[in-house]
Amino acid sequence: MDWVNTIVQGVLLGGLYAMFATGLSLMFGIMRLVNIAHGDFIVLASYLALVVVTSLGLSPLISLVIVVPLMFVIGYVLQRYLLNKTLGDDILPPLLVTFGMSIILQNVLLEVFSADSQKLSAGALDIASITVSDQLSVGVMPLIVFISGVAIVGGLQFLFYKTELGRAFRATSDDQDTARLMGVNNSHIFALAMAIAMAVVAIAGVFLAMRTNFDPTVGPARLLYGFEAVIIGGLGSLWGTLAGGIILGVAQAVGAQIDPGWQIMTGHIVFLVILIFRPRGLFPRSVD
Amino acid sequence: MSRLKIQNLTAGYGDFQALFGIDLELNAKETVAIIGSNGAGKSTFMRSIAGLLKNAPDAVQFKGENIGDLPANKVVEKGIALVPEGRRLFPSLSVEENLLMGAYSKRKGPWNLNRIYELFPILKEKRNNPGTALSGGQQQMVAIGRALMSNPELLLCDEISLGLAPTTVKDIYKAFPAIQEDGTTVLVVEQDINQAMAVSDRIYCFQEGRVSLEGKPGEVSKDDIKAAYFGM
Amino acid sequence: MNTQMKTEQFSVVRNTTTSRGAAVVTAMILIALISVPFWAGRADLRMIIEFAYYLSLAQMWNLLAGYAGLVSIGQQAFVGLGGYMLFVLAIYFNVPPIMAVFLSGLIVALFAIPTALTVFRLRGAYFAIGTWVVAEVYRLGFAQVTTLGGGSGQSLPASIVREIGSGRSEREMIIYFTALFIAVASIGLVYWLLRSKHGLSLTAIRDSEAASDSLGVDIFKTKLAVYVISAGITGVVGALIFLQKLRISPDAAFNLQDWTAAVIFIVVIGGIGTIEGPIIGTLIYFILRGVLADYGSVYMIVLGVVAVVMMLKAPQGVWGFLSKKYDLHLFPVHRRLKAKDELE
Questions:
Q1: To the nearest whole angstrom, how far is the Cα of B200 from the nearest Cα of chain A?
Q2: Interhelix angle for A186-211 vs A38-56, to 10°?
Q3: What is the predicted ipTM?
Q4: Do strands B16-26 and B4-13 pair parallel, antiparallel, or not at all (unpaired)?
């Protein structure tokens, strides 16, 4: 029964990792951009939520109403006026610019908020749990996070395959020039994609801050978890990304169960093993 | 007044110049064909008009307006649609989604999904297939339909018969009267000289980035064309 | 020069007047550097040692990213491994410290082979993140090894420290010359690699993988070789760094900001894909760090901003800009076509 508990906790954690991953997946899928600063933007969102919560006295969940639109705008502006300039055949500019942004963000957060560890408290929600059986109880907060993760993946799936904007995203991803011939303004479409990715980042950041302690240096690890979930799931498949997040979450939970020091390590090792034996991930998109 | 006026258009890629001062005029409701050998600059010319290559503002005038420096997504809003060389369907979109992408600019006009399906009934049957799963001829129909979905006043067709069987080419050109009927001006690039002559009111021949001949199909002799085409 | 010229009127040359002048200046700087320990203070010595290892790290990262198109953000894996190997060899195998420094590099190169076989499955930006995951695996792994101090690390025992040299100044001088040797050797290695026929295949791969593949360049082997060599040298530098620091811990050894971020900024600012770039970049790095020494992590922010702006506005870096403007080539690795009558 101990193991059932471990796996359930891992699955729930996976919902958070899927949230880290969908933003990355979105950016890579549409504009072939890998944002190295992705994890640091998640942490930025955590700090924005912290500022909103402490200055306005709102509950962390309500802070989403402010943090999500804010990150949406930041994402749009960042892509439209900075990152679009780096896109092209050469992978170096986007890689190095976002890497630079990662280091800048970490150090700015360090200067502004110090290295002290922070956490957002959701009050009674923090400790509320649902008892399933004698040995298995599920925390309400992790459950909310997991359901949100699934909802985000479902929502993005709908956006991608059922809306006009999603069609434009996929068309632009296929063939930029031909999309322009249809009347698509690529810079605007890319900026919108980044804005949506950042809105997801915002939700992930707020939930991260409510689930665990955070400080300015925890961003890169979040990038790695998200990245691992994307690769495990297989590039280009949103549901695969969710599955990848869950696999990673379970791997970490199982590792932690064996020895707390092995939590993160086990996740990395599962990722590397999958990379060696299934380099295209577990659920690759058939059309590459 | 002419619908499209091209004035001293020069274009190229990087250091390579492909077009050296092209002048060309197209009247409303007219169908004009451009012929010429490979590398004569025909595709570059079409891409320039469509806005994929930037030009001087007055190099391309459409209905009296300078549009030479507009990007492709603005050019289509003005009413010019390009059927690109090689069809260039979106591989991850279905046939119907490809057609709907054509309507992205939301220009008003006679064309909609139903009319495209009337024009090319086979597409209705295959509307949920991925565009790239179709035969070459059917893909070309999707590409033409997609361009029509933007309700263009000027339709640019770049080598639509390339790589297709002669009967398929005939089927595709059968759709032209219906397109012209609505007053759409058509500019085609065609390697098949006979096909070009059959479909057009006037022809231009390009050679090494310059216009080497201009005339009406009935009025230019085979020798004229030979000379203009091959430079002999 | 518009008229056609016969081919025998041209020849391929690599040396230019500036490069010959540069060789003389380089020799003079080297002689000056060799004399430093005999008159300079300890702080200066330490700074030059640090300069030397940053320069070597920058040359190695540049070899990877600038020449082989392998953008790694996990080089801290090899710095850390090198450092830990030094401790293992010196403490448990009684290898003399300086010999251990070089032996560590060899072991790190061996570690780099399975690492490469794993991360080479990823391309482009994903390769970059993959190298980072591997570095994290090494960091977390060493944190679990209690005999090496676990997460809190350990110091080099005094008996081993004395093995480097009996007195402090003697030790510093030995470390200084080792650092100098490594820096000169890493520049020399890159220079030699680029002038050899491997240099041409490297540049061919960077410019177009598909084209070089069709021309018969074995991309995989070439990339693997470059990756392993650069990991080995990075490991040697890592061992030297922790021989100087005398203390190692997983967080210090596998530190992204110190061993990879700073190095990437150095190369980007100096000029990626040139030998001169990392030298200029290291100079700029030390100047910036010195000027901003009193403001904590601000220098990292400034460095990052400068690097991002450079990447956007002048991706060829300071050296690329200078060499284009004044046609300077200190290290003649380019093959240049020259008319015979221009030759002396």
A1: 24
A2: 60
A3: 0.92
A4: antiparallel
Strand B80-83 to strand B154-158: parallel, antiparallel, or no bridges (unpaired)? parallel
With respect to residue C5, please indicate whether it lies within any of the assigned structural domains.
Answer: no
For residues C176 and C133, what is the distance between their CA atoms, to the nearest angstrom? 33
The widest CA-to-CA distance across chain C, in whole angstroms, is 75
Whose tokens are 């001829």? That residue is: B137
Q: How many CA atoms lie within 13 A of C197 on its CB side?
A: 2
Residue-range definition of the domain harbouring residue A102: 2-277
CA-based end-to-end distance of chain C: 19
Model confidence over A149-172: pLDDT tens digits? 999 999 999 999 999 999 999 999
Query: Are the C-beta atoms of residues B149 and B103 closer than 8 Å to each other?
Result: yes
Tell me, what's the pLDDT at B142? 96
Q: What gap in Å lies between CA A135 and CA A12, rounded to an integer?
A: 17
Is A30 within 8 Å of chain C by CB?
Answer: no
Which A residues 211-230 touch C at CB under 8 Å?
220-221, 223-224, 227-228
Look at chain A and report how many structural domains it folds into: 1
A86 Cβ under 8 Å from any chain C Cβ: yes
Q: Is A275 an 8 Å CB contact of chain C?
A: yes
Task: Please indicate whether, in this complex, the C-beta atoms of A287 and B91 are within 8 angstroms of each other.
Answer: yes
Residue A195 falls within a domain, yes or no? Answer: yes
Q: Is A208 helix (H, G, I), strand (E, B) or coil?
A: helix
User: Hey, of A25, A92, A278, A288, which one would you mutate to test binding to chain C, going by the most C CBs within 10 A of its CB?
Assistant: A92
**Where would I find the H helices in A163-262?**
164-174, 176-181, 186-211, 219-233, 238-258
Domain that holds residue C119: 10-343
DSSP assignment letter at B25: E
C: neighbours with 3+ CB pairs under 8 Å?
A: A
Task: Answer yes or no: are the C-beta atoms of C254 and C76 closer than 8 Å.
Answer: yes
* CATH number of A86's domain: 1.10.3470
For A118, which DSSP code?
B
List, in order of start, the domains of chain B with CATH numbers: 4-230 (3.40.50.300)
Per-residue confidence of chain C (344 residues) as pLDDT tens digits?
444 444 456 666 666 667 777 778 888 888 888 888 788 788 889 999 999 999 999 999 999 998 888 999 999 999 999 999 999 999 999 999 999 999 999 999 999 999 999 999 888 888 999 999 999 999 999 999 989 988 889 999 988 888 888 888 888 899 999 999 999 999 999 999 888 877 777 777 777 776 676 666 678 888 899 999 999 999 999 999 999 999 999 999 999 999 999 999 999 999 998 899 999 999 999 999 888 888 878 888 999 999 999 999 888 899 988 888 877 777 766 655 555 444 43
Count the alpha carbons within 13 Å of C61 in the hemisphere toward its beta carbon.
Answer: 36
Domain assignment present for residue C96? The answer is yes
Is C137–A268 a contact, with Cβ atoms under 8 angstroms apart? yes
Radius of gyration (C-alpha) of chain C in whole angstroms:
21
- Give, for A256, the enclosing helix (H) or strand (E): helix A238-258
> Which of C72, C118, C139, C140 to mutate against chain A (most A CBs within 10 Å)?
C140
Q: Taking a C-beta distance cutoff of 8 angstroms, is the pair A241, A27 a contact?
A: no
Q: Using an 8 Å CB-CB cutoff, list chain C residues near A106.
A: 257
Q: How many domains does chain C have?
A: 1
Question: Cα B178 from chain centroid?
Answer: 16
Chain B residues closer than 8 Å to A175 by CB: 88, 90
Decide: residue B113, CB within 10 A, 0-12 exposed, 13-18 middle, 19+ buried: middle
C108, C109, C110, C90: which is closest to C99 by C-alpha? C90
**Measured distance CA(B93)–CA(C130) in Å, rounded:** 31
Tokens standing for C191? 């220079």
Q: What is the pLDDT of residues C45-84, one digit of tens each?
A: 999 999 999 999 999 999 999 888 899 999 999 999 999 9
pTM of the model: 0.90
